[in-house]
Specification:
By secondary structure, the protein is an alpha+beta fold. The protein is about 45% helix and about 15% strand. The chain is built from 11 helices and 14 strands. The chain has helices spanning about 5-10, 20-55, 70-80, 90-100, 105-110, 155-160, 210-215, 220-225, 240-245, 250-290, 290-305; strands at about 100-105, 110-115, 125, 130-135, 145, 150-155, 170-175, 175, 185, 190, 195-200, 230, 235, 245-250. The longest helix is centred in the last third of the chain and has 38 residues, at about 250-290. The radius of gyration is 23 Å and the shape is globular.
């Protein structure tokens, strides 16, 4: 059974009434956080636009065919019968990259691996001081994966496996999904769960931010969606699917520009998260220690920006 809070209970929850000035301060902090979120999204869109523009796809609109067909001989030779594999949108995206300079991800990476099937008895909560962070599929989202917010593994569970540990800058890609197989970059050390691909790039490879952007872009997702297989309602990709992804190689200036935009976007998102958490904590401080203490806390957080 999924936990839930009934509407009846929500209607009876007491809400503390703080001063109007304090409420306005909290609102200002939240508005500032939303501006950081908007800036992060703008930078991400610009970075993806720069990637598509460098590939001559600045005004590209993926085709949306009502139906499409392939000869039986093509289906037989490919050993695939699923519609996603022959979707013109996915085919065109891969063909565009193939006409330009690219590297397969396997040639840019020191390794592409995955984690073991950690037993659920090993899981604990993010605030357990005895646990070690580990990344699950649900943590694989575009941007930074903040290890301090991950669930954790108990030492006894870790001892059962001889699994390596991912480190800051490694890329984690969810291997189960339907319309996406998103990639995120770890900001610290963490173990990796099963059905999560763990990619460590070579020292001379493009930056993790650039590779992550390609994987999360329509060009990267099209390649992964072409390769996925579907069991019931969930799509699956393999480590070999990920290793075979084509990563466009642009000139150094173009890739640096995209990498910088991705990094700035991640910083803006981090600042937004910090401010939203600070607003929540400030309300708690106001209830526990009074509004002056809460306002001092907020000023310190915003002054550190």
């Amino acid at each position: 059974m999924n936990p839930y809070i009934s509407l009846v209970y929500l209607r009876t929850m007491p809400v503390v009434l703080l001063s109007t000035d304090f409420q306005n301060k909290i609102e200002d902090t939240i508005r500032l956080a939303r501006r950081y979120e908007a800036e992060a999204n703008r930078l991400k869109v610009n970075a993806e636009g720069a990637l598509l523009g460098a590939l001559g796809l600045a005004s590209w609109t993926p085709p949306e065919p009502v139906a499409y067909q392939k000869p039986l001989s093509t289906i037989q030779s490919s050993k695939r019968m699923d519609a996603e594999h022959f979707d013109p949108r996915h085919l065109y995206a891969e063909e565009v990259i193939a006409r330009r300079s690219y590297e397969h991800l396997r040639d840019l990476a020191e390794f592409v691996s995955s984690g073991p099937a950690w037993p659920s008895s090993s899981f604990t909560t993010p605030d357990d001081p005895d646990g070690t962070p580990f990344a699950r599929i649900r943590n694989c989202k575009p941007g930074k994966i903040e290890v301090e917010n991950l669930d954790r593994l108990l030492p006894a569970g870790i001892a059962k496996f001889k699994s390596g540990m991912a480190r800051a800058g490694d890329i984690a890609i969810g291997m189960d999904g339907i319309r996406w197989f998103y990639a995120g970059t770890l900001d610290g050390d963490a173990y990796i769960n099963q059905r999560v691909s763990w990619v460590r790039l070579n020292d001379d490879a493009p930056s993790p931010g650039y590779v992550q952007l390609v994987l999360n872009s329509p060009l990267g997702q099209a390649q992964l969606l072409r390769r996925m297989t579907i069991a019931q309602t969930v799509g699956h990709i393999t480590l070999d699917d990920i290793r075979s992804i084509k990563i466009p190689v642009l000139n150094d200036a173009e890739m640096a520009n995209i990498s910088n935009a991705v990094e700035d976007s991640e910083k803006s998102n981090a600042q937004a998260a910090l401010l939203l958490e600070a607003a929540k904590r400030a309300v708690e401080i106001a209830i526990e220690d009074g509004e002056p203490a809460a306002l001092t806390f907020l000023d310190e957080v915003e002054g550190a920006d």
